[in-house]
Amino acid sequence: MQIKKTVITPQKENFPQWYHDVVKNAELAENSDVRGCGIVRPYGYKIWELIKKELSQKIEDTGVENVYFPIFVPIENLEIEKEHVKGFSPELAVVTHAGGEKLVNQLAVRPTSETAMYKTYAKWIQSYKDLPLRLNQWNNVVRWEKRPRPFLRWSEFFMAGRPYRVC
Q1: Could you tell me the CA-to-CA distances from 68 to 60, 103, 113, 114, 136 in Å, in that order?
Q2: Spatial distance between the Cα atoms of 14 and 96, rounded to a whole number of angstroms
Q3: Which residues contact 138 (CB under 8 A, 6 or more apart)?
Q4: Could you count the other beta carbons within 10 Å of the beta carbon of residue 114?
Q5: Higher model confidence: residue 48 or residue 111?
Q6: Which of 39, 49, 135, 155 has the fewest CB atoms found within 10 Å of its own CB?
Q7: pTM to 2 decimals?
Q8: Closest to 77 in 3D by CA, of 125, 117, 104
Q9: Which residues does 116 contact at the CB level (< 8 Å), separation at least 6?
Q10: Residues 108, 76: Cα–Cα separation, whole Å
Q11: Max CA-CA distance within the chain?
């Protein structure tokens, strides 16, 4: 049996390389064939599940309920908040074709969870009696990152629970 020697760069010497070495040697994740995207390996995914389970319980204990919104967001939803979009527009992934045809209305692939929710909130909240609206969504977010990092800033990454309270 051959023993594999693990080399981990000292944290004080080069923090980004140390982080990469730890993720690789612990077999938490690896790069996929798509630049900036990753594969979460079983041990890494188990850690995510435990974090999510703990956070989800804490969030639900405060009376927040889970919901799910689609991963596709109409471009018009983003254009409503031009200032918001300006900050990450180069990182935006847009669907222009589907089913072999050009789409009439282009779709962003969820750059944030908020952009998918606001128009719906406007329909759900008709008066103060509909408040507070306390929701949480667990989802993936897609941003075409310039400098991807495993778990932290892949082009597709898990969005930890963020309770939304509309008052």
Answers
A1: 15, 24, 10, 12, 8
A2: 41
A3: 52, 56, 66, 68, 158, 159, 160, 161
A4: 17
A5: 48
A6: 49
A7: 0.78
A8: 117
A9: 69, 70, 73, 77, 110
A10: 9
A11: 70
Cβ proximity of 71 and 112 under 8 Å:
no
Give the model confidence (pLDDT) of 20-43 as tens digits. 999 999 999 999 999 889 999 999
Separation CA 103–CA 107 (nearest Å): 8
- Residue 144 CA to residue 94 CA, distance in Å, equals 10
| Side chain identity at residue 96, one-letter code | T
CA–CA dist 92, 108 (Å, integer): 7
Structure tokens at 103: 């789409």
Task: Please name the residue ranges forming H helices in the chain.
Answer: 15-25, 42-61, 75-79, 82-86, 114-124
The tens digit of pLDDT for each residue in 100-134 reads 999 999 998 987 767 778 888 989 999 999 999 99
Grouping H, G, I as helix, E, B as strand and the rest as coil, residue 143 is: coil
CB 110 within 8 A of CB 139: yes
